[in-house]
Amino acid sequence: MSELMIELLTEYVAHGEEYELAKRRQLTLLSAGTEMGTEGMANWTRESLHERT
Fold this sequence. Notes:
The chain has about 55 residues and is an all-alpha fold. The chain contains two helices and no strands. The protein has helices spanning about 5-30, 45-50. The protein is elongated, with a radius of gyration of 23 Å.
């Protein structure tokens, strides 16, 4: 293989590994959830959010 081909394949594999690490990190954050201060209960209704004043 040429040096260029080896370099391109190395970069491709490294990018794939970085992508998988980032994906796992984000999925972990999503599964943990984010505290929004509502204790799991919405204190509003759809109608009140879309109310015209």
